[in-house]
Amino acid sequence: MSLSLRINIVDSNVTKTIVFSSPTTVHDACRIIREKCPEATVQHKDYGLFLTDEDNTTGVWLEPARNLEYYILKSGDTIEYRNKLRTLRVKMLDGSLKTMMVDDSQIVANMMVVVCTKLGITNHDEYSLVLEEPENQENIDSRNYGTLTLKRKKEEREKKNDKMEQLRKKLHTDDEVNWLDPSKTLREQGIDEHETVLLRRKFFFSDQNIDSRDPVQLNLLYVQARDAILNGAHPITQDKACEFAGVQCQIQFGDHIESKHKPGFLDLKEFLPQWYAKIKGIEKKVFQEHKKCSGLNELEAKVKYTKTARSLPTYGVTFFLVKEKMKGKNKLVPRLLGVTKDSVLRLDEKTKETIQTWPLTTVRRWGASPNTFTLDFGDYSDQYYSVQTTDAEQIQQIIAGYIDIILKKKQAKDHFGIDGDEGSTMFEESVAPHKASIIQHESSNIGKLDVHSLAKPAILRTGDSGQKQIHMGAMESPKLTTSHRDTKVHMLLSEPQRALISTIEATHTKIKESEIELETKAQYPEIGSDAAAKKWKQVTLDTSKQNVGSQIAAMNAATAQVSVVTLTLAQDEVDHHAVGAAITTIGSNLPEMTREVKKIIAFTDDQNMGDKLLDATRHLCKAFSDLLRAAEPESKEPKQSLLNAASRVGDASTQVLATIGEDTAENKELQDLLMSLAKAVANTTAALVLKAKNIASTCDDQQTQN
């Protein structure tokens, strides 16, 4: 069945009508457009098809592997052929604005990887984007109700809703935050290049590990905690409010200066919750707390602020205002439902004090509908917990998000013992008892004197072999020798280090298997030479190239993580779980990439290109082997060897991508990021060694110098 579509080439503002067959894939449709439209031949890898809605503000990107008939298109429909790369304006909590290029066809969850990487944030799964909307107009009077009875009922209903809205604004619940849907693209949510989104932490899972070594995340965490304290999201006492304000003064103004920091200097609304800012004489208390922070630099003061904020009982809780049934009565009353990284909470709607706690491990399932949210605790509870709310979908996303993060961390950690999963590697070491044995010469005891008579009866015996020679000699004096053997000292490894070694060994095995697999060619049956066969062959070839590109991108990102985590920290501070997770990523992607490479070699007509691709892939496998050897916890090689290995991985990856023609701007950008991180580590290490030499030269004692 033929399909006549109007193709709007956005960059050239040209619209052409092209006839396709319904089973045509989106990937092939783009190729046909490039063949028939000279305006569409520039940087075709960055372009795709976009189907707009009636209002032209939202729409969906067509997936390359789908057929056109999947989208229920009809003849005469208009589809845009446009660039998938677009600018995204990201506003930080401190007010700074970042503009970056992103892939518009990716859903928000995938886009967060790129956004956070460009901002220097590692745990991208704990952040999300918020769309800031102008405040809704209030007090709009639209009193066209009809009869007085209906008017009265509607007024009563609105009065109840007004009370809930006022309570919601007072409590600063998560209902107010307009999070973007992580499962949709920006275009599907109507966000164009001119809109600005706000980056916020959505999940508080690994924030306790953030300190002065990660100034980017530390600043984001500080600003978000400060805003939550000032707007009243965290109920605190007056003394605690003064303590927070004092640390904030240290961050903004430095050490306390008596002549400068006097009452009237501060705008108290920016340092205290509004109900404390009006108290007379409270500014003196703030400056007293400010004095206690003298000597702290900005980063240290931010660490102190966030550490104190974590001690608050409401820290890390995502609040939702719901209605629950009052016990013993058929009446719904307001209640706060909270979600943390390890539990679900029932809280008092006025004081935010915890009434009941359910660990996330007891939540068996949940159900979300437009007006209700229900939790099922299985055998841990006799009945369901059900509440009335219009934010059931948001509650569900928060709970599912925390469970997702927990499962990812658990898989990366590779637990030991009973709690470990089936695929985990167990390390068992048996220490047998030994006893010491002393070996030395012993002198024989002197026995008693025996007296015998020589007068005995004669015995006549015949000689066996005639006369014999007599030999004279003397016994040598005993000699004492001392032997010395050096005791072997074995370094005791921690559990994370043993797990990392096990992961590295498993990945080494996968690399060897991949190298062996490259020795044989992939065998496929004859597919013919007709048009359909050629088309299938070309689609398979293009798909394999795209898969190789994405797998290399994932492995390069993992290589960068190994380099940054291993080279920037001391041996006892290295997060071996993070290194293990990155190496696992390499081990899982490399065999898949090898199979795709063999498929490309089998289907390509250029024998020279196939040989080059095979050599480049082997070099990449060898580069990964060198990287793993340099990343071992017991490795005695200098850190420069890890840096060189990471550089070789980048070079080999670039060679593979260049050979198959998939060396895109994104891959180059990732390669540049990898090299810049490696160079930064090298420069920092060199500066550290130089400073150490300068300090050592000032010491008089030779042993201290060494």
Automatic annotation (TrEMBL):
Q: Which domain of life is it from?
A: Eukaryota
| Compartments where found | Cytoplasm, Cytoskeleton
Keywords per UniProt: Cytoplasm, Cytoskeleton
Has the keyword Cytoplasm been applied to this entry? Answer: yes
Q: Which InterPro entries match?
A: Band_41_domain, FERM/acyl-CoA-bd_prot_sf, FERM_2, FERM_central, FERM_CS, FERM_domain, FERM_f0, I/LWEQ_dom_sf
GO cellular component assignments? cytoplasm; cytoskeleton; focal adhesion; plasma membrane; ruffle
One biological process term from GO is: cell-cell adhesion
Segments forming domain FERM? 86-410
Any one Pfam family here would be Talin_middle
Citing just one GO molecular function, the answer is: structural constituent of cytoskeleton
Cytoplasm is among the record's keywords: yes
**Principal place of residence:** cytoplasm
What PANTHER family would the database entry show? RHEA, ISOFORM B, TALIN
* Descriptive protein name: FERM domain-containing protein
Q: Which organism is it from?
A: Dendroctonus ponderosae
